[in-house]
Amino acid sequence: MIILKRNIVFLLIIIIVLGIFIATSIEIKNYKLSLNQNKNEISKNPPIWPAPFYGQFGNNSILISKEFNFTIISDSTLLLNKTLSKYYNLIFTQDNLINSSSNTLNKLNINLKSKNEILKFGFDESYKLIIKNNENSKLEGNTVYGIMRGLETFYQLIKYNFSDNSYFIENCLPLIINDKPRFPHRGVMLDTSRHFYSVDTILKVIESLSYNKFNTLHWHIIDSQSFPLSSKSYPNLINGAWSKSEIYSYHDIKRIIKYGKENGIRIQLEIDMPGHAKSWSVGYPDLLPHGWNDSTTTIKCPDYDVPLDPSSPLSLPISFGLLSEFSGTDYGYNPNYDDKSNNLFNLTVDDLFHVGGDEIEYQCWNNSKRIKDWMNENNLKTFQDVAKQFQLKIIKQLLKIGKIPVLWEDTFQLFYKDLPKDVIVEIYHDQSTAINATNNGYKIISSIARYWYLEYSYSNWIRAYNFEPTLNISKSNIHLVLGGEGAIWSESIDSSNLFQKLYPTSSAIAERLWSPIYYTNLLNAKSRLQSFRCSLLKRGINSAPLNNSSPLSAFSCYNS
Amino acid sequence: MIILKRNIVFLLIIIIVLGIFIATSIEIKNYKLSLNQNKNEISKNPPIWPAPFYGQFGNNSILISKEFNFTIISDSTLLLNKTLSKYYNLIFTQDNLINSSSNTLNKLNINLKSKNEILKFGFDESYKLIIKNNENSKLEGNTVYGIMRGLETFYQLIKYNFSDNSYFIENCLPLIINDKPRFPHRGVMLDTSRHFYSVDTILKVIESLSYNKFNTLHWHIIDSQSFPLSSKSYPNLINGAWSKSEIYSYHDIKRIIKYGKENGIRIQLEIDMPGHAKSWSVGYPDLLPHGWNDSTTTIKCPDYDVPLDPSSPLSLPISFGLLSEFSGTDYGYNPNYDDKSNNLFNLTVDDLFHVGGDEIEYQCWNNSKRIKDWMNENNLKTFQDVAKQFQLKIIKQLLKIGKIPVLWEDTFQLFYKDLPKDVIVEIYHDQSTAINATNNGYKIISSIARYWYLEYSYSNWIRAYNFEPTLNISKSNIHLVLGGEGAIWSESIDSSNLFQKLYPTSSAIAERLWSPIYYTNLLNAKSRLQSFRCSLLKRGINSAPLNNSSPLSAFSCYNS
User: Fold this and answer.
1) CA distance A257 to chain B (A)
2) Which residues participate directly in catalysis (chains A, B)?
3) CATH class belonging to B185-524
4) Is the ipTM here above 0.85?
5) pLDDT digits 0-9 by tens, A189-218
6) Structural fold of domain B33-179
7) What sign has the CA pseudo-torsion A216, A222, A227, A229?
8) A452, B119, B282, B446: least CB-packed within 10 angstroms?
9) Domain spans of chain A?
């Protein structure tokens, strides 16, 4: 009887696995079929970047009439209207002389299935785009963010003829695109401490992320070099800004989060602690370990990596205060800060909150009698224990106020046996840590320096494109890979070279993270990426040529 | 009696000259005095870039109340309202918590003296800005363009305090600025043939020129590599564009001219001829000399410098057609083009029209029997005679349709004895040609390559700043120096590195051309330029650091 039951269970498992396998195979086969139907090669498909999950394309073309509009056939929202209007203005910048007829495309039906606009980890970005003829063309999304992604695809399909002043879609109709991202977390990290970026520049970055179908801006807002974040609970912190004008106000942060929402981009804040804290001390000198910059000691503390001193009576209050303030909760630690009406974010702030944890230079604590006394009192034996205790407090506080903590891999390396499983680990050194962390049940975000850091002279789109974040991760753990990020560490980057460092390398990461793995290869990526780059340039996003440097000689953007 | 009369005339001349000298001296002295009053050094003055013609500054500060507005005390115009609204939004991007009182600045009176909005060479950009207290602060301009320049100065005076959410003007009140440009022609040349720049990018360039108090965009629109200009009279010319989407439509050009007007920037078109014409021939192959690319001949024609063939029956009709079409006249040479309703520019196009004339490679004509036969028929002995005859026809046609021809110095070198004096010569090789041209009575624009071309690796702001366009020009000819231009030749420049090549070098040129010569020295330029660069970055104009390259390490924009 037991054996029979076991056999039935076994049979069921086999059936389920086979079913999944067949379904997946059909999906893959369908896709591949559609790519090759009528002897069309991949290169004959319209150059959509990142490539969609599923696409089926015919050979017909259609003119778009001057009466063309988006026709909402579902309930509408303010954000949906704003999005449609934005893309209408992006697409139709020229005169259109084509009168509507039964042979022209006069409308695209828009079907928004849910009015839920909450932007949080895993939000729905899927969409379905069908273009056949005038009556049967539609764009469907579960959320307005799916509609945004679909409109970006629609934008990329439309061309303009300067000779007869007409818009058209060429050689790909009827068209069915069923699209959704491969990974839920796809972003770029921007460091605004080493150089300050104006709000206008950050908004332009957000806009550009949306064109790439990214969904997250990881904002590494402060670091050792400057503290540009204006805090109401600890107003002296901005004394650590580069200058009196290189600062982000509440008003600025609200604009950035609002613009993120309008572009389907989560704004994930990082307040890096306890390392990289020199800038904190300009306003509150007691935050740093005593004697850290004593020039007479043999063990030197690196100037820009000095960490907070966990034994300082200010360290926890200020750290907790910042977490509360910038996650929009009312757990404020500062008794002077009880103006709830000025609560910054409410529901708009992301559910992931990054607290750094990288590169804690323990030797900086070595000169401080205060720390050593405090270690004795608290029964902490090593500086590693000090770091661990501090970080655990931060993590627990974040969990208490309802946020999911994200930390750089150093934290995992330091004490993964005691690290809560809710923590998401961001990998930047090596894939081996990704394997190790997932084997230990941690969710990870991939941002491995030699592939996805964007500031190096050797960074380029092919290198970035070829890195697969699930590499050597066991199949049962692949669901723990949440996605990845390109990173703009800004020692050698400021506004003047930001976009040429961001793109096209980040665009390659965008496709790696959005498109099916069997599509993400170099087969026809280059020409599609060149086309996509042209579409970025057209919209004022100043991507470098594919050589990742400056232009070598006169060329079309389609060959650069 | 005759001697007496002569003496009286002589005396009068002496009195007038003395009068001018004394007046100028007083003006200079006043300015210098104001710079040193109360032992204030130049560096204590507010960091306005480019420095104003006359400024007088006190030591007081003032808060700007949240009720602040621009109050028009004269007649108004749509453009004036749009300009005030633009600067209001540029300045007031943050919360302002300051209530109005008798001690705050609550308004700036705006006095527009003339509604004349015609943008042409020499238009009035002067303004007077007085800020004392709430009742006696005003900005006065003869034209709306003077108001624009004054608002830019006002913008640069205002700071924000992130600690108490207030706007203020610091340590310089009462303030009187009497400002006007030193030269009437101050611009940047943009080459859109070697790389195509999107309309959005060109609009951003125009916006940036206005912040620099430039007044001209010299648009080198076509060249050998591509022909992005969509012509209704000769529609096949756009076959020479890089691609079917790297083209400027009428609609685009109108947007660019309209935006120029909104920023006080003349859009001066250049249609370079007869050299650099390879791209013309894609649509009209017969325009080029027969046999130009014959590989068997010993004298080679450089691929990208092949000129038009003046003996082609198409050369003059197409050249004249383009001049007519793009200067908005109705002297169209193409009988098929008589749609006057589609006239492009009407009054909005600039009165200066550039027709190139540089680098005509005569040897490219050497293989063509057609040219040689035609030379015999027309009694032309040398290829130089061919070029001269063609250019004279172009110049006369331009004068006939009411435009002032501008040509590169090659034309002056080729036949200055027969060149009409109406022609403006743009100098790019050497100051000696500037001296020679002015000695021969020609007006010049200075754009000498080794100082004011912006694409070289050695280009930098100090080099550009130190070049004085009137150098060694005799005093009696200085009025013939109309101004100058920084030049973006785009073989190695595209949208991705455009702004870091444009700025800060062009900003240095902007001050050289706007500010009094006795002020234009390196004394306090660096810190003012750094401040100005910060103000550009804030507005999304991504100037390189002052090293003209990428950032060397983490820094404030005020030290970069």
Assistant:
1) 15
2) 359
3) alpha beta
4) yes
5) 999 999 999 999 999 999 999 999 999 999
6) Chitobiase; domain 2 (3.30.379)
7) positive
8) B282
9) 32-179
